[in-house]
Design a protein that fits this description.
The protein is an all-alpha fold and 139 residues long. It has a domain of 96 residues. The protein is 68% helix and 0% strand. α1 runs antiparallel to α2, α5 packs antiparallel against α6 and α6 packs antiparallel against α7. It starts with a helix and ends with a helix.
Amino acid sequence: MQNELDQLLMKLEKSIMNEDFIDVTYDIVEEIEEREDAFEAIQPIFKLMERNPDINFGRPGPFVHFVEKFYKNGYEEKLVESIKRQPTQHTVWMLNRVINGSQGDRKPYFINVLDSIIAFPNLDNEIVSLACQFKSLHE
C-alpha cells in the first residue's frame, strides 16, 4: 500500500515542471485523498515544496486543500516541521492561515514560528518580508 502512495508522490515530483502542474496535482491529490494512509503524504508534499520554492502551488491550491483536511489532526505540526527545515513563501502563507484559525495558547506558539522564520539564517528576503508582513497583522 505504501508503494502505491510512493508512486503517486513520485508522479507529483515528475510533473512539477509541467505547465499543467496544478491540474495534474488536483488529479493526484484526489487519488491520495481516497487512501487510508493519506496523512502519510503530508510530509513528502512539504518536502516537495521545500525543494521547489519557486513553483506556484496555487493560492490555496490542491496541496493546501488536501493538508488542511487534517487541520487539528496533525497537519499543523507537519507544517512547523517543514518550516523549521526550510521555509518557503507558500509554507509561510499556510502558517498565516493556521494562525488566523488558532485560539488560546496555540496562536502565540504559531506566531513564535513566524519569529523563527524572520531569524532563519540565509533566508530569501521575500520570505522574511512575507513573515514580517504576517507578523504585523498579529501584533
